[in-house]
Each structure stands twice: as C-alpha cells, then as structure tokens.
Amino acid sequence: MLMVIFGAGASYDCASSRPLRDWPVGRGPHRLPLAKQLFDDTDIFNKWINTFPRCREILSRLREASQDGSVESELERLRAEGKDRPDRLKQLAAVQFYLQLMLWECQDNLRYDPGWAATNNYVTLLDQIESWRKEEEVYLITFNYDTMLEDDLRFRTRIKDLPDYI
Q: What's the Cα-to-Cα distance from 46 to each of 38, 41, 50, 137, rounded to whole Å?
C-alpha cells in the first residue's frame, strides 16, 4: 500500500518546473495561492471580494491573520462570534463564496494556460505512481482547497460523485 498526502502548498508548487516569474501575464495569476495569500490585495482577489461586499467587513482581520499564518484560526474565531452576532455568519458565507469563486478562477487560469500541460507535476506524479503500483493499493489524501489533483485523476478514473473518491 502507498499513501500520498498532499498538504498546504501542493497545488502552489504543482507547476514548479516553471518559475512564477515566467508565467505569461494574461487572465490573472497562474499559481494557486497559499493560505497566507488568500486575501492579498491583488486585482483578481479584489474583484471577487467586491462581488461579495460582506467580505470587506472582516477583510482586515483576515489579511492580518493570513500574514501571521493563522487564517483558519481567525475564521474559527469569527464563526464563534456568530453565536452572538448573526451578521458574522453572513460575512462568513460571503467569504466562502469568495474563496470558491476566486480559487475556481485561479484554477481555470492555470488549467487553460498553454504551458500548463507541459509543467503539471500532478500528472507526472500520478504517472510515476501508476508505474510503481502494479497491484498495490494507492491512497491519495489532499488537504488542499482546490481540485487540481482531482482534475488530473479524471484521466485515470471516473470522479463524479462522493463515493467515487473512495
């Protein structure tokens, strides 16, 4: 049995054979953000923050927590405040929508980049695992917010519903 765990930064580095500065300018960032970059003051992120204005009410807290490396802890504190302040829950819902659409756009920018196929380390890793495994079971575990690994697994297996992940 082989277990491969993808943690924070796996998708950030999934195209590491091509340095970030070499990515062409165009539709936006061509690298998925690390947790500390999720609320950075950039055009693509601000576009989605402005789409969900309730995010702005807690944005300074999230940006500060991101720089300290504790964005998940800050989100949990905000959720706990929702017990006494129902508006917090609306703000957090806006953050969830922001994260979903911002990450989706970042993935699309990377996925549709002409150089992506040649630099995709997920595809290379999955091919190496396939060569090694023969009849062995392989477990892939990801803690990433994006679906880059799942997208590349679709070349090898059908992932349509939750039971397909098992």
A: 11, 6, 6, 43
C-alpha dihedral sign at 62, 66, 71, 77: negative
Q: Are 120 and 14 in contact (CB under 8 A)?
A: yes
Contact 54, 94 (CB under 8 A): yes
> pLDDT (tens digit, 9 = 90+) per residue, 123-141?
888 888 888 888 888 888 8
- Map residue 161 onto helix, strand or coil: coil
Cα-trace Rg, the chain? 18
For 41, counting Cβ atoms within 10 Å of its Cβ (0-12 exposed, 13-18 middle, 19+ buried), the class is: exposed
Stated pTM of the model: 0.75
Residue 137 in tokens = 């079971």
Q: What is the pLDDT of residues 81-116, one digit of tens each?
A: 999 999 999 999 999 999 999 888 888 877 777 666
Structure tokens at 71: 């964005």
Beta bridge partners of 4: 140
Cα–Cα distance, 3 to 78 (Å, whole number): 34
